[in-house]
Predict the structure.
Amino acid sequence: MHIDLSGKRVIVTGASRGIGLAIARSFAAEGARVAVCARNLEAIEATGRELATRAQSVIARAVDVTDTAGVKAFVEEVAATWGGVDVLVNNAGQGRGGNLDTLTPEQILEHANILQMGHFRFVQAVVPHMRRQRWGRIIEINALAGAIPTPDGIPSVINRAACLALSKSLGMSLARDNILVNSLNMGWIDTGQWDRHYGEVGPGVSRAEFDAMALKVVPLGRFGKPEDVAGMALFLASDYASFISAASIDISGGLQGQIAYYPTLKREFAEMAKNRVILDTES
């Protein structure tokens, strides 16, 4: 099967690193015209320079997804330059932890403005262009926690759930215009955040021990790679996926309900590490 995306006009948000960068690279390698954005100007310009060696054409801009006017201006620039927009990959967003005892309502709303409203702003901006050509693909990059809630990380749980509901609703309502909307729900994808998770455990354990703990809940037994996500994004943007809309696809190595056990595992592991350090000091 050859996925030919030559000349497709693609927008990838949050494309300066991690999953977004891997997706942008993959579309560029398939001959697409790729427009990328992220908040950090220096980082997204570096991405643009890299993609220019692969893609048919590149636009790279600093865009804040909480800025409705800025989002619309970016999309309008892409559409004016290339005559339209074919594919939107809504990747921009961030995880956020916290629970009932540590969060304020305002913190949850701030996260919602970045995540679910950020996705909504981009969809609202690209859909008129897709409707005019009666062809479009929108790929929502979400998280498994939106489909299977965990007992911690309330902002990510509820705002990712909202993004997933938005994707399903749009996948139904826009299908009549031949605009297909689908969600990819991430499990443990190694984009560098696991270095931070490891650092939160504290001293006393090796990285190998930490990884073994984290991967206990992943049936495939490894972290996913950003390229694992990019491959499915390419498929959904292609004509091979022309009868798929409002779908929710987990990119998780088999991880499902086991995700609920991870916060407990991490707390127990951190306590074990703490006790080990105390014992080592006493000895």
Q: What stands out?
A: Residues 195-222+258-282 form one domain. The chain has a mean pLDDT of 93.
